[in-house]
Amino acid sequence: MRVLIVGAGAIGVTTSVILSENGFDITLLCKDEREAIFITENGLQLKQAKVLKTESVVAVADYKSLEDNFDFIILATKANDLDQPIRSIKKYLKNGLIVSFQDGFCEEQIARIVGTERVVGCVVSWGATLKKQGIAEITSKGEFVIGKLDGADDVRMDHLSFILEKINPTTTVSNINEHIYSKLIINSCVTTMGAISGLLLADILNTRSMRNVFTCIIREAILVADALDIDVPDFSDSLNFYNLVSGNHFFKRLYRHLFIQVFGLKYRRVKSSGLQSLERGKKTEIDYLNGFILEKANELGIHVPVNKILVEMLHEIEDGKRAIGVDNLLELGIRCKGGRMK
């Protein structure tokens, strides 16, 4: 099977190395010629459990350099770098499927270009960091959850599952939107809080006031989900959002803080992809994360002050009007007593 991977970031590099190692015909579409030449000359490297793997892959920068057709096209770019790549490569898809690894709800945008029946949503619940160009490191374990946007049965999904299983356990579901929203909530916490503070997740969630912010984000996101009639599933089979934010008596608050702190330790090596973008001088995906929650809340007349402030803070950082720093979250945490905005 021929697979085109669009984007040589942490997830794109990791996916390329593991699939190439397992004998799949991989082509990596890079952002520019300089990156493609570097990867062609040096190969890709992946650090996993202290083992460094190196693989050579076909790397190109110009979609016109692509040959033949692909069984699967995996989009591993940022959500805000989505539109142009799809328009450029859709003719190489033919009878295949296009798979969105992006965070947030990008599938409908993709479907408008290639058609709903060809779009697969994919929730990536494992983490990786791009150490240098062409060099990635896996930072947390997890799984894939995949599903056709139209929910239809499709034998090609069995082939896709077979491919992705080489990387991590893969589950196919009939309603992928619910799982996308579950991941969106986590990213609205982890990615955004990391980008604003500059800290790794364990350092963020080691502070009580920041755990309160974490809880506030989730509570507001669940309010929006209820209004949208989305039944949010557990994240990675372990984090039940409803159970986490329900109740406010002493023992419930104690459980909540302990659970979130343990969650932070489990994913302690995770570095926010939003922070990595800011460090490279690029925009974050905030409008697809907390911004999505805020947009839907405004449409529904729901008050989500914490998500609103986070969106504003991160845009100020992107515009150079605010510095990255822990004080940003501490400032907000003071107002999130007991996991509720005061």
Overview of the structural elements:
With 342 residues, the chain is α/β, with parallel strands linked by helices. It is built from 14 helices and 14 strands. α1 (10-21) links the parallel β1 (2-6) and β2. α6 (176-197) crosses α11 (273-279). The longest helix is centred in the middle third of the chain and has 22 residues, at 176-197. It starts with a strand and ends with a strand. The model has no long low-confidence stretch (mean pLDDT 92).
Which value, in Å, is the CA radius of gyration?
Answer: 20 Å
- Percent of residues in β-strands: 15-25%
Number of strands: 14
Largest sheet: 8 strands, mixed
Q: What is the share of helical residues?
A: 40-55%
Q: Could you spell the SSE succession in H and E letters?
A: EHEHEEEEHEHEEEEHEHHHHHHHHHEE
Structural class: alpha/beta
Provide the residue-averaged pLDDT: 92
The stretches of 5 or more residues where confidence is low (pLDDT under 50) are: none
Q: Which of globular, elongated, flat, extended, rod-shaped describes the shape? A: globular
Q: How are the strands of the biggest sheet laid out side by side?
A: 5-2-1-6-7-8-11-12
Keywords summarizing the entry:
globular; single chain; alpha/beta; 45% helix; 342 residues; 4-stranded mixed beta sheet; 8-stranded mixed beta sheet
In short:
It contains 14 helices and 14 strands.
